[in-house]
Amino acid sequence: MKKPSPIIRFMLRTALFALIVGCLLGAGEWAVRRYVPNPYRTKAERMEHGPMPRSIVLGNSHSYYGVRPDMLPAPAVSLANVSQPLAYDLELLRHYEALGRLDSLRFIVAQVSFTSLFDKDFEDTPEWYRCINYKLYMGLDRHPALSRYGFELARPGVYGAKLKSLAGIGEAALLCDSLGFGLGYTRERRGEAWASNGADISAYHNAGADTTRVAANIAVLDSIVAIGRRHGAMTLLFTQPEWTTYRSAADPAKLALMQRSMKDFAATHGVTWLDLYDDHRFGADDFYDADHLNTDGATRLTRLLAERIRAEEAAATSPKQQPQVPTQ
Fold first, then answer.
1. pLDDT for the residue 148
2. Would the pTM count as exceeding 0.85?
């Protein structure tokens, strides 16, 4: 029998090698999806199979690590995720509304940070790869399955880190509790120089803030409030505290634009916005770094939010005073 030519043998060996590599990558993709702890899956399972929530927390890492659902009117769940923009807050609400999971909703607690009104499309940022989590684990139909948003391995660095965590190498995967609250930002775990990079973080946020995006993000907030009202839910907006090293480097003009826009939005829509940006009730013991609260600070912040919810709920349900009829 005639042996295959060198070219055919080379092609066969290349195909075999590609098949082996493909199988290994596929096995890794399957293992990462199935076995690596995943806060997005935790939140999705809670929303789809747990009790329908009375309270929902929205926002980015400031809410993920800063607002405790267990201190809000129950059942409660946090849909906040690291770097999550307002547009994805809205996408999640629309997704679970379509699934009929907002019928018991009474309270939306939504965080609007210094950067939120300046957020660009998630897909156009260096953290585009986080969109993969919404496609794979939360069921958002925003991107095609056969796209870079449909595979963990589309971001090799993150994919590799997850594989390492699965093998017990490197840092553990991002974790949250059963209600979606981020774990790990404790005072005991923070570094000694926790406040020293506040200026750098603030400068990074200033540089990435796109003031042309304010109108678009205000429109997103409008839609979030509208969904809440469709279900008889109150929306409480807040801006989280920042440490002094972060605040000192903030762009005054952009900060003023954010605060002015939020005051106007709250007044126009009849909602509450709590501006805690430089609230001095939060001290050094409440922060994990210059830009995030630790679990102690989260308890303090959530207590303030819960108190405001109770006050507004009481005001909304109290009988209105009848006007006095003057006596003759």
1. 92
2. yes
